[in-house]
Amino acid sequence: MDTLTPRQIVAELDKYIIGQNTAKRMVAIALRNRWRRRQVPEDLRDEIAPKNIIMMGPTGVGKTEIARRLAKLAESPFLKVEASKFTEVGYVGRDVESMIRDLMEIGISMVKEEQYEALRPKAEELAEERILDILLPVRQPRKFRRNQITPSSKENDDEVDVAQRTREKFRRLLRNGKLDDREVEIETQVSSLPVVEIFSPGGMEEMDINIKDMMSSFFPGKTKRRRVKVPDALRTLVQEESNRLLDNEKVVKTAKGRVEQTGIVFVDELDKIASSHGSSHGPDISREGVQRDLLPIIEGSNVNTKHGVVKTDHILFIAAGAFHVSKPSDLIPEIQGRFPLRAELSALTRNDFVRILTEPKNALVKQYQELLKTEDLTLEFTNEAIEEMAILAEEVNERAENIGARRLHTIMEKLLEEISFNAPEMGGVAITVSPEMVRERLSEIVKSDDLSRYIL
Questions:
Q1: CA 437 from chain center: how many Å?
Q2: Which letter does DSSP use for residue 86 in this model?
């Protein structure tokens, strides 16, 4: 990530997201600024705060996808939350600090996965030795008669040499899969914690975690013996050895640093908690309360988690909303000040739909071609058919709700419904989707407003 320039970051995002260059450039600069901050003198480093971003635009234009792909590119802990899930302190609902606790858990999971990969060779080696110990138990010393002399050191060496050769022979058989059908008896750890559902008031998730941790210390794990095939035993023992080798303190420390320095929180539906202009009663009071609860998290505060205190000063917050009814100026001034950058994403046009269907790495046309290839069915789309689908998507979005690129999912499903249903009986067939087929299967639905609302 350190080697990627803003231009290269935008190029990577272009592989999956069509258009929206303003937003892409903005997030690319924000990501590069993180690398720049690490290069400045240490006494100034902590003073440089991230410039949080608000992305405004209708649904389905790529707001969430930009943030998600950015986090994947940076290998940063990433959390997507809906602002409407949170409620003011004192009301039933989730407290805003839970987003940082969730982000910390995501960071720990990421670091654990990396550590497991690094420890895997050693864990596999130890698991292999345990399997060989089960397959070749250590032989007890031979019993000698009262008048028999102790065996010589040469006899002992010969016996050890035979045992070693036998063990190596079994090791080769194990690695070549020749012992996969054999069953072995292994001893595994099982939790003895009783199944108890804990109900706590809204916003008290941390209490649930602490109570469960406390109960787990009262009920230590037990071991259980069971017979399984060698491959299953090997997988189980590799996991056990990985857990034994893992340094949990190091994992927590690394994850905490990564969350604090590179974490990204995507707050969706920010417009849903914007108060109506000039209103100070009813649900608007609660919406403003959520904003005030969010403010210290975004400004920079210390959040208590089960893994210690997490500082939010350098976590990047990217907010998004359609802002159809409300506008960013309806947010409280303090929140507006903590989101100094604003990117307006444009509604998708017919040409955008054509590009979305064909250009990205995960383009819908490629997805359906690969899905039906599993049934030995070849699916091709003419350029005119793709153009026709784009026209229909734009038309339905204008007449019904504008749901952006998500309209293409429903159009593709409806268009290929019959083919997908009959695909198992059509193996070896090549089908070309023409504009006539598109019009035949979708034009009647598009003409009827009632049908298009329910079906497309």
A1: 37
A2: B
Among the listed residues 261, 240, 283, 314, the one whose alpha carbon sits nearest the alpha carbon of residue 49: 314
CA distance 378 to 428: 7
Do residues 445 and 401 make contact, with C-beta atoms less than 8 angstroms apart?
no
To the question of pTM greater than 0.90 for the whole model, the response is no
- pLDDT band of residue 89 (cuts 50, 70, 90) is low
320 burial level (CB within 10 Å; 0-12, 13-18, 19+)? buried
* Per-residue pLDDT reduced to its tens digit, 380-433: 999 999 999 998 888 888 877 778 888 888 889 989 988 899 888 887 888 899
Sign of dihedral through CA atoms 162, 167, 172, 177?
Answer: positive
Contact between 256 and 307 under an 8 Å Cβ cutoff? The reply is yes
Q: Report DSSP letters for 391-455, one per residue.
A: HHHHHHHHHS---TTHHHHHHHHHHTHHHHHHGGG-TT-EEEE-HHHHHHHHHHHHH-HHHHHHH
Q: Which residues contact 135 (CB under 8 A, 6 or more apart)?
A: 170, 174, 179, 182, 184
3 state DSSP class of 332? coil
Please report which confidence band the pLDDT of residue 346 belongs to, taking 50, 70 and 90 as the band edges.
confident
Higher pLDDT, 399 or 111: 111
pLDDT at 144: 45
SS3 of 220, please? coil
pLDDT tens-digit readout, 227-263: 878 888 888 888 888 888 888 899 999 999 999 988 9
The Cα–Cα gap between 125 and 131 comes to 10
Phi/psi at 371 (nearest 5 deg)? -60, -45
Work out the number of other CB atoms within 10 angstroms of the CB of residue 4.
17
- What is the CA angle 185-187-190, rounded to 5? 135
HSE-up of residue 404 (Cα within 13 Å, Cβ side) = 20
Contact 86, 229 (CB under 8 A): no
**Alpha-carbon gap, residue 271 to 278, rounded angstroms:** 16
Q: Average pLDDT for residues 16-37, to the nearest whole number?
A: 89
Classify each residue of 253-263 as buried b or exposed e, where b means 16 or more C-beta atoms within 10 Å of its C-beta. ebbbebbbbbb
The CA–CA distances, whole Å, from 47 to 43, 142, 315 equal 8, 74, 13
Check: CB of residue 348 under 8 Å from CB of residue 17: no
Q: Output the CA torsion 203→206→211→216 (10° steps).
A: 140
Contact 452, 445 (CB under 8 A): yes
Q: Rounded to whole angstroms, how far apart are CA atoms 145 and 156?
A: 17
